[in-house]
Amino acid sequence: MFKKTLLLLITITLIGCNASKPAIATTKKAATTQQKKERVAIQTKKKPVYTKPEPKKTTNNTTEVIESTSKTVVTNTLISDYISQYKDIAMGNMKSYGIPASIILAQGILESGAGRGDLALSSNNHFGIKCHKDWVGESVRHDDDSAQECFRKYKDPSESFRDHALFLTGKSRYATLFTYEKGDYKAWAKGLRAAGYATDPKYPEKLISYIERYELHQYDNIAMGKDYVVIEKTTTVVVAKPNTTNNNNSGNLSTYEVQKGDTLYSISKKFNVLVDDLKQKNNLADNTLSIGQRLIVK
């Protein structure tokens, strides 16, 4: 009886041990599975950090070959700013070398793209002056009439303005220019083209257009002083013309008294006449006007 009881206890113990082992194994597997899931979850969160593409950097890469300044896009404001920046230099050069300030500024605007052209920005060359044989300074290469031509390079734009004056006064082919009246910007514009400064057949028209649109001839007058002969002569001739006794601008429109801010262009638009007709009717040598001056408009 004792033996049967002992055998029964051993059997129960063995069965209990075998039944508890799978529970332990199952618990460990569950823990392992949970750890793997946590690792997978952690890796999943980190993965986008390394695979996310970096944003592309926007860079304005420019070619080494400089574009012609005639293709430079500018605004009226930029041109006006250019004039304000360099008008004093232009007037100083007019006094020193006899080149009209209006021509200097118009050439600077056209040749440098109002200072925004690549040649002006890279070499401070505002007048498109090439190296030539006598140039010993720095230079840059630029496609112009031919590929990769040599152009002069300056440390400062003011050096370019001075060299422009020396270039014109030092070359015999430009000697004829200095026989013109200083205020005759049209003769200068045409003379520059005839002397070979530029190959563009419309070069004179472009210069004259800038001078008249932005009234650059006023700086010629300032540089030459108050006793500018053309102004006095023009006023005298106009006063001597007949039918100029009416002082009422809104009445008989055969004459008109120049007001502050008037230009030949604005007056021509007001009375629907051509600028050249106004100049011819009033014996005007250029576009210079003075306040109170009377003009024949019909």
UniProtKB/TrEMBL annotation:
Matches recorded under InterPro entries: Glycosyl_Hydrolase_73, LysM, LysM_dom_sf, MGlyc_endo_b_GlcNAc-like_dom
GO biological process terms, semicolon-separated: defense response to bacterium; killing of cells of another organism
Keywords: Antimicrobial, Bacteriolytic enzyme, Hydrolase, Signal
SUPFAM superfamilies in alphabetical order: LysM domain
Signal peptide: 1-25
Domain of life assignment: Bacteria
Residue ranges of domain LysM in the record: 254-297
Gene Ontology MF: a single term: amidase activity
Family matches, as PANTHER family: PEPTIDOGLYCAN HYDROLASE FLGJ (PTHR33308)
Protein name: Peptidoglycan hydrolase
Native organism: Flavobacterium hydatis (Cytophaga aquatilis)
